[in-house]
UniProtKB/TrEMBL annotation:
InterPro entries: NIF_FeS_clus_asmbl_NifU_N
Pfam families: NifU_N
Coiled coil (UniProt feature): none
MF terms (GO), sorted A to Z: iron ion binding; iron-sulfur cluster binding
The protein's name in its UniProt record: SUF system NifU family Fe-S cluster assembly protein
Organism of provenance: Floricoccus tropicus
TM region positions: none
GO annotation, biological process: iron-sulfur cluster assembly
Family per similarity comment: Belongs to the NifU family.
Boundaries of every NIF system FeS cluster assembly NifU N-terminal domain copy: 10-127
SUPFAM superfamilies reported in the protein's UniProt record: SufE/NifU
Gene3D superfamilies found in the cross-reference section: 3.90.1010.10
Length: 154
C-alpha cells in the first residue's frame, strides 16, 4: 500500500474515533480522574471500573481536540478487560510511541498505534497522552478520584 494511502487510512481512523468516540460518558461506580491540558484546553473526566485487578468498564467525557478525543476513544478500546498491570504497560508503550520510540509491542495498542505520527508534532503529544496519563493516575489511585493539571504531571 502506498504511503499516502496508508496515511489516509490512519487519518480516517483517527477522525472516526474523534467524530464517534467509543465509551463516551461516565460510570456511576468507578474511580474518577479529572485531568486537563492548560496549554490547549483539553479536559477529560475518566471513569474506570475494576473487577478485582481487571478493568471491567471504562468511560470518558470532556472536551478536546480531535487528537485528544480519538486517543481517549482508542485507549478505552485497548484497555477494557486488561489487568491493571497490562493497562499500565500499554500506557507506557503509548507514551514512548508518541515520543518517537519504536517498540514491537505497539501492536498491542490496537488502533491507538495509528497515533504514532503524533511524534512528528511535539506540540500535540500532550493532547494524545492526556487520556493515557489519566488512566495511569486511575490505576495508581485505587478507588480515589483525583483532579490533575497536566502541567504539574510531567
Amino acid at each position: 500500500m502506498a504511503l499516502s494511502r496508508l496515511d489516509n487510512l490512519y487519518r480516517a481512523v483517527i477522525l472516526d474515533h474523534s467524530n464517534h468516540p467509543h465509551h463516551r460518558g461516565s460510570l456511576d461506580i468507578a474511580t474518577q480522574i479529572d485531568m486537563n491540558n492548560p496549554t490547549c484546553g483539553d479536559v477529560i473526566k475518566l471513569s474506570v471500573a475494576f473487577d478485582g485487578d481487571t478493568i471491567s468498564d471504562i468511560a470518558f467525557d470532556g472536551s478536546g481536540c480531535s487528537i485528544s478525543t480519538s486517543s481517549a476513544s482508542m485507549m478505552t478500546d485497548a484497555v477494557i478487560g486488561k489487568t491493571k498491570k497490562e493497562a499500565y504497560q500499554l500506557a507506557e508503550i503509548f507514551s514512548e510511541m508518541v515520543q518517537g520510540v519504536e517498540d514491537p509491542d505497539q501492536e498491542k495498542l490496537g488502533e491507538a498505534k495509528f497515533l504514532a505520527g503524533v511524534a512528528k508534532f511535539p506540540q500535540r503529544i500532550k493532547c494524545a497522552t492526556l487520556s493515557w496519563n489519566a488512566l495511569k493516575k486511575a490505576l495508581e489511585s485505587g478507588n480515589e478520584g483525583i483532579a490533575v493539571n497536566l502541567e504539574e504531571h510531567k
